[in-house]
């Protein structure tokens, strides 16, 4: 299970289901183009990319904290869940304890995130949730959401 | 939106550094921008080599070759960036299930009939009396519900199309005698125009399908694995009335194409180069027309409707959500 699946689970379960079925991403969607750009160019502070078990790719700062960049203030919770999942994975699977930082470069904000018991439960629920979504034969029905416009599957999802 | 480039002259096209260059027989050089190209349409006698083919492949540009007889000769389609085993499996499953295949086939026919109806209705409101034809098409539409097999759906489609084509002799001026569909080679001007237009629709659908991970050879209404990409044949049927037929009516009724735009030989009648140019230009303009999409909440081009149709089919196959065929809504 990848970090982005966690994020999608929080954003839209239908989007997660499409992701799991290799639906092609609409690369011409302006919001998709923008999103990719923010992630690649943001944050000039030193960070190193680690890949674990071939499924998890995370960024670690010089301070030793795991960092997750949230592209916009409307998507805080999805980015947070993704970060928590990394912390949980490091702790429960790899066996190293880390703290995390949720950064919003364009607004110069950062928030420290810790893997509390409550957060660990939230991650475990989400893992079960992701599993249920991707193993189901059909996706949840389309429901207009505020971020549909910036979804990579927008045209596919609403074509009719 | 990605553009189509039509090449009418004879000569060769070649890769020239990071561009595609056309060198005509009289030595003239033209450069074709590939960055925003969807496909190249070759109408003349053109030489090319494998270096060009791999270059186009890298840029995701398809090449459609138009020859003699029935115009369409073949396509060189770049391999997709995305493939999806899941999509292929679902595509085959639906094909293999007689019930589902019949349903999909019937949907393609229902959409086609609807789109024929809108053309007939348009001319019915403009001084023609097509009441009886409209009734026949309505009857076909109802008969479709009872069609128990793909063959029966095909039969209904053939009946509908015959009734529909019988209006052409009245819509078009006297010197354009149609008298029913003949292929390979087309035997008169109207057949020639329909053949040319339909092969342009077909080639554009091939490009549209390429944007998804659908396999173009697995189809529902037509038998899979014929000489052409049969899924493109299924989808193209829906759009022929909107794209081909409207362009034919417009160009002929406004005298932009006359009997001089054709060359007749023995039992074949084919568009001249000038005629093909005129038609292709009007066709491309039609593809660029836009219409407000009811659910996307923005305007989309007719060309994008082809892409959407591939999305819709894929969505149905993957999710089981109902496939509603394209029916002109404006
Ligand atoms: S368009 Fe909206 S409903 Fe559809 S997958 Fe994307 S976010 Fe979910």
Question: Characteristics of this structure?
Answer:
heterodimer; A: 160 residues; alpha+beta; 5-stranded mixed β-sheet; 6 helices; globular; B: 330 residues; alpha/beta; 4-stranded mixed β-sheet; 11 helices; binds iron/sulfur cluster
Percent in strands of chain B:
15-25%
Q: Helical percent range of chain A?
A: 40-55%
Report the span from N to C terminus of chain A: 31 Å
**Percent range of helical residues of chain B:** 40-55%
Describe the strand arrangement of the main beta sheet of chain B, using strand numbers: 1-5-7-8
In this structure, how is the largest beta sheet of chain B organized? 4 strands, mixed
Order of helices and strands of chain A: HHHEEEHEEHH
Which two chains have the most extensive interface, and how many residues on each? Answer: A-B, 15 and 21 residues
Strand fraction of chain A: 15-25%
Shape of chain B: globular
Q: Could you say which structural class the secondary elements and strand pairing of chain B correspond to?
A: alpha/beta
Q: Give the tally of β-strands of chain B.
A: 12
Round the Cα radius of gyration of chain B to an integer and report it.
20 Å
Low confidence ranges of chain A:
none
Please give the alpha-carbon distance between the first and last residues of chain B.
22 Å
- Our count of helices of chain A gives 6
Overall pLDDT of chain A: 87
Oligomer: heterodimer
């Amino acid at each position: 299970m990848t970090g982005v699946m966690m994020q999608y689970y929080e954003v839209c379960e239908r989007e997660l289901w499409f992701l799991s079925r290799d639906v092609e991403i609409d690369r011409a969607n302006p919001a998709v183009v923008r999103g990719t750009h923010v992630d690649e160019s943001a944050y000039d502070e030193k960070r190193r990319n680690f890949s674990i078990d071939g499924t998890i790719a995370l960024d670690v700062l010089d301070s030793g904290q795991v960092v997750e960049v949230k592209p916009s203030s409307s998507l805080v919770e999805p980015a947070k869940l993704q970060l928590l999942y990394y912390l949980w994975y490091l702790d429960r699977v790899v066996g190293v304890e880390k703290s995390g930082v949720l950064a919003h470069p364009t607004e110069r904000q950062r928030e420290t995130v810790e893997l509390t018991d409550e957060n660990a439960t939230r991650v475990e629920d989400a893992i079960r949730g992701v599993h249920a979504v991707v193993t189901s034969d059909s996706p949840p029905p389309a429901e207009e959401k505020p971020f549909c416009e910036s979804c990579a599957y927008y045209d596919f999802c609403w074509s009719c | 939106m990605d553009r189509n480039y039509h090449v009418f002259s004879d000569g060769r096209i070649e890769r020239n550094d990071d561009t595609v260059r056309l060198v005509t027989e009289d030595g003239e050089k033209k450069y074709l921008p590939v960055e925003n190209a969807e496909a190249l349409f070759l109408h003349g006698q053109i030489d090319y080599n494998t270096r060009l083919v791999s270059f186009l492949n890298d840029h995701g540009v398809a090449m459609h070759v138009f020859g003699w007889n029935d115009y369409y000769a073949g396509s060189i389609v770049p391999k997709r960036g995305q493939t999806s085993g899941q999509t292929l499996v679902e595509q085959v499953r639906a094909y293999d299930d007689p019930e589902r295949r019949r349903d999909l086939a019937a949907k393609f026919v229902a959409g086609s009939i609807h789109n024929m109806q809108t053309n007939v209705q348009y001319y019915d409101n403009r001084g023609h009396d097509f009441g009886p034809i409209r009734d026949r098409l309505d009857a076909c539409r109802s008969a479709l519900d009872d069609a128990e097999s793909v063959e029966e759906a095909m039969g209904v489609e053939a009946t509908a199309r015959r009734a529909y084509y019988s209006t052409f002799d009245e819509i078009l001026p006297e010197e354009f005698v149609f008298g029913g569909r003949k292929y390979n080679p087309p035997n008169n001007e109207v057949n020639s125009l329909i053949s040319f237009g339909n092969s342009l629709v077909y080639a554009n659908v091939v490009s549209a399908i390429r944007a998804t991970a659908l396999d173009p050879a697995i189809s529902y209404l037509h038998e899979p694995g014929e000489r052409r990409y049969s899924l493109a044949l299924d989808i193209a049927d829906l759009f022929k009335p909107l794209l081909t037929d409207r362009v034919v009516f417009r160009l002929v009724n406004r005298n932009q194409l006359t009997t001089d735009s054709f060359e007749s030989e023995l039992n074949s009648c084919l568009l001249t180069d000038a005629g093909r140019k005129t038609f292709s230009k009007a066709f491309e303009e039609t593809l660029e027309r836009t219409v407000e999409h009811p659910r996307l909440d923005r305007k989309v081009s007719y060309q994008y409707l082809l892409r959407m149709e591939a999305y819709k089919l894929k969505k149905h196959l993957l999710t089981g959500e109902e496939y509603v065929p394209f029916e002109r809504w404006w």
